[in-house]
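Troubleshooting: if your tokenizer reports a length mismatch, compare your output against this known-good record of 559 residues.
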Amino acid sequence: MTTTTVSIGSRSNTVDTETPATSSGSGPLYTVTFGTTPTGIAVGHIGTVAAFSWDDEDTSNYVYVVTAISGDNITVKYLKDDNERGDASPYGLYSSGGSSGSPVQQVMVFKRSGITTAQASASAPSYTVTFGDAGPPADLHVGDVGGGADESSGCEFTYLVTAIDLSNKTVTMKYVHDDGGNGTTSPHGLQGADGNQLIIDFNRAFSTITLFEEMIDDSSPNYWGSSDDVVGELHADSNFTDNTVTFDQKQSLSSVTLSVYSDDRHDGTAESGALWKPTTASGHDVGIIRINIDNMIVEWLDISLHELDSTNTNKVIVFVGTNDDNIIRNNIFHDKDGDPGNNGCFCIHVLAAGASSDVISILNNIVYRWENTDSGEAASAINMNAWSGTVNIYNNTVYYVHSHANSQPGEGYKFNGNANQTANVKNNISHTVTANRLARRRAFVDTGTGTSNVDYNLSTSDSSSSYDAQGANSIIDVSNDNDSTPFFVSVAEGSEDLHLHASSPALEEGYDLGTTNSVNIDIDGIDRDATGVTWDMGADQTSVASTTTTNTSFIMFVE
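Known-good structure output:
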């Protein structure tokens, strides 16, 4: 199957607008300083100046490419100008303001754009094109889209970036659409308004997660084939605020993955990478991510409910019932407080049974600060009780789940409430799960209706003994006082770091679960099997062999 990756983020084509203050160089290279410090500019970006001439009272658009950056100094190379006035520094080009005797310096607009100089190869609808001078924009990513208006046809063309080779200055671009129905066409050869090669403008494929999902719903999508494995990658351009995204159609796609670009992933702590922080309510029992399709992966997300304390949002992940081969892994879900109303708050929750042959896997996630202040409602971190298929709950960390109710529980994990369910629950941590009454403080709730394989888990002393971690190799009654018995690096509210402390009792107490669905990859992207020691419990693998150097680089999952 073909895997198609698309970018999701708020970044636009225009990067910065600055006023040149000085320049040096004799051309065509000029090193320019600006009145204020430029931001976001990268090698390969295009800078333009709309220069007015008092002699002919006309404006010519000058085009430059950024070739080097050193502090606040930016070196640009003159490429062309509309009226062919010739090589000139951007400093000394004027706007139409002022007068011929007192001209006003024109601003320089930097864009995430490039000009192709050749076509290296072609296999329609994909074209590998070469960018001159500094090459393509250095901050271009696979999954971005590029294009522009072709003057010769009068049509807007759009391409998807599928590969980038900065060393050879090439980009592979897949034709996806043009508004004139011309069909597969190379981006090299498209004509700009000046009659020369078109300047290709680059943007993210989607500005919101909601727009990505809408194309998943589309029976005739532009960016991918009908049977592709589609990966939507979040970029940390700014916070995502989508209040709810419902995946309920995938047409004939093989799979859908919602992920995060590798350089923008969290480091195992909240708000350290791309952040999803809704500011408006999703609706009660709806969830922020609502899944009703098979073959879906949700990974590497950091979702904060901090802004939703007074709203009715009470769930993050909701499984609606069509959920075979759903995988939730390496995410951080956190900071739900307040009273959402009605039946309590459940971070990861299955609503309907599904089929007995279906499988859901919940791997290497962290859930913390999950609190319901209503005096009559429950709080639950991972509740898979209703599922009728197989559920794999492996290597998750739950910290601080609190129900303020006398009659309703605080729960870390709940499972095995369906006669057809097989619950595999291993290597999980339930730390500080509480309610107003001791009997309602439940670290692990095995309802006992179906089949359960439960062992190698850990619970703290606040749990009712009836709901401690089960299994001969599990650990119970661990102190929940992180100061006297260090367990996590930090549990200070607002600066939690739930990596395991060097003296944590969870170190090297886990079970080797193999590599299926990348369960061996921890919350930091570390391969547990490469550490040379027994697996730790929970989402974080802190332990390494004394001769092993920890590699904290991120692992790219390949399904």
